Amino acid sequence: MSDQNQVRQRQIGYTESEIPIQEEFDDRKKEAIFKKRESNPDVVSRIILAVLTLLSFVTRFYSIEYPAQVVYVAIFISFNWSTSFDEVHFGKFASYYLKRMYFFDVHPPLAKMMFAGMGYLLGYDGHFEFDNIGDDYISNNIPYVGLRALPATLGALFVPLMYMIMIESGYPIITAIFAAALVLFDNALICQTQLILLDSMLIFFMLCTFYSYVRFYKLRLREFSNEWWIWLVTSGVSLGLTISVKMVGLFTVMTIGVAVLIDLWNLLDIKRGLTMTQFRKHFAARAIGLIVVPISVYLFFFYIHFIILNTSGPGDAFMSPAFQETLRGNVMNLQSFEIRYNDTITLKHKDTSVFLHSHVEHYPLRYEDGRISSQGQQVTGYPHEDDNNQWRIKPAENFFNTSRPENDTIKHGDFILLEHIKTNSHLLTHDVASPLMPTNQEFTTFPADDKSRYNETVFQVYIHDGDSNTVWKTKSSFVRIIHYDTKVALWTHDAALPEWGFKQQEVNGNKNNIEKSNFWFANEIIGKNVTEPSEQKEPRKIPFLLKYFELQRLMISHNSGLTKPHPYSSGPINWPFLIRGISFWTNNDDREQIYLLGNPFNWWLTVASMAVLVGVLLADVISRRRGIKPISDPVRNRLYNSGCFFFLAWLFHYIPFYLMGRSLFLHHYLPALVCSYMVASVVFNFMFINSVNYPISISGAGAVVDYISFIVAITIICISFGVYLYLSPLTYGTPGLDPSGIYNRRWLDTWDLHFQPKKGEI
């Protein structure tokens, strides 16, 4: 196809992406379509694009400086860590980047790096850690407006991106304006992009991905040209940037992946005339551009993440000891000492943080359920420092080929005896049921000078991720201590013994010796004064991929564990209907509040539009089964190509949330919402324009259609603007509303707004 024809196609809004694959137009029909368009819409389109962009910046930057304090809404879970959708969370992370302190978060690093980069450019040094709700930004000298300007700028670019996606997809200017206006006047998108939050980056890169892929798809008749390769790689880079902001960027990957598979399936059709060699080239190009490139981008930002965060910080505790040793100033690096035979140590359980403990008291003859014990010396878990926590490590000499030197280091796989210092007895386990768990073995001790039960006192040390040369160290080595005779693991759990056990924690032998809850670590070597200056240790170096995969496992694990309920959580079924929002911030003095709430007119319109699209497609399929063609092939082709692509994007960004067990919130729906606006625009186009030829003027051919589409579009946009304006006090947080004003804006009873009027106030 010539460049001249491509230009002429763009002039009438009928692009390569919409030319039917299996029903080609002959040249005469093409010329007839091209000649219907004499004026060039490029100048008009650019003016409209500029106006829309300007309006978008106005709506996103209006009152961006208010409130001048930390906006905070969070959900707290275990491990003294929280996931949230607030400035406390992500502002704090930007500060940690600037101070190079290691932290842990369930999201990939790109967006937080962008905030840190903006802070660096603004001269911010990370001194403020966003700790408290309502902390004042101005008095703490925080360039918060500049930090908020980053997501606001990207949020403002949603509008021109939406416009360009619709134009490049072959739709007329009025349809592109319609789509852009829905995004322009959506209160939820404005509210979410005015604060130090991640969603603006996520949606921006998602839209960049869609735009780049549409541009790439349009060039399929100029395969392997320079422009074709540029837009393919750009699509891949945009995909990588999307998933580098949030893991839900994988939904965008799924969307593009399905589109690519359909494209490859069409290329495989023998009617296309491609040889298998040519098809393999197409497959390889897409694999490089849309798999290798995104993965490389994703890995690159984690590589930078690890380079920047090289100092001990609040995220250390989430990582393995080996990982922690790579951080400067970490306790694993400063206080990690090799353990040698005949050292006296304290052992601490990793999960419950109790010490392995014993004392002179014995188990009772009978337990409450009538079972009989060994009446041996009690072995328990004790949470406090005590002399009864001290154990000497001795070599099990009978289990080594040669005797071990007194100061030899203990390594992975070594056989040891654990001697309780205070009672001069060896740790022992045997085939007797434990006090609280009849399925597990009892732990006790046996006199150290009595060799009659020697084998029952022998244990083997297994260092996590260790090999035969790995030395056991304090703090930094997680170990499983496995009994030689019965193969059970030394284990404890947070169940307290009765009064006879002083309410201390039960210790027993776990028959499933590979469980992660079997890990212990040596807390200290008794007599080793770790407060004295020791030789400076260089941080440990481990391969990037090992660090990357460890962090990925933790991110996925903790993300799925965010199940604690929250007052503003909501289920996916509620989101499209805008059943409830999220309270972001309140000011009791002036009755001001920021409440995340979408434009209900827009949201409900998209629900109706998607229902119409599904209904039209089903009716078309059924009609064609009966030999009836209710929709012309060119119009039908556009409806199926772009309409189904946008609907698929909405589906992939929405349905997966039904499979998640974690707490969910309205803001999770925003990427799907943007996709639904594209669907609504396609349906508008089908219902009120429904033609291949799209004249831009309101005269000549298609004038009636143009008048109708223009009036409908303007009417809908005006209503959308009116609703946006009416709800804007809740979006921007100022000015404050009186009780009647709040009451009038509470369209649904489930909108739990603050400062509801009391009886008699209305």
Q: In words, what does this structure look like?
A:
The chain crosses the membrane at residues 43-64, 102-122, 142-163, 170-190, 196-216, 251-268, 288-309, 601-619, 639-657, 669-692, 704-727. Keywords: Endoplasmic reticulum, Glycosyltransferase, Membrane, Repeat, Transferase, Transmembrane, Transmembrane helix. InterPro entries: ArnT-like_N, MIR_dom_sf, MIR_motif, PMT-like, PMT_4TMC. This is Dolichyl-phosphate-mannose--protein mannosyltransferase. This protein has 762 residues and is of the alpha+beta class. Among the domains are: 74-99 and 104-142, no CATH class; 198-303, no CATH class; 336-529, Trefoil (Acidic Fibroblast Growth Factor, subunit A). Helices cover 43% and strands 13% of the residues. The protein contains 21 helices and 16 strands. The strands form three sheets. Strands 3, 4, 5, 6, 7, 8, 9, 10, 11, 12, 13 and 14 form a twelve-stranded antiparallel β-sheet that branches. Strands 1-2 form a two-stranded antiparallel ribbon. It is elongated. It starts with a helix and ends in a 17-residue tail after the last helix. The model is unreliable at 1-40, 74-84 and 692-705 (pLDDT under 50).
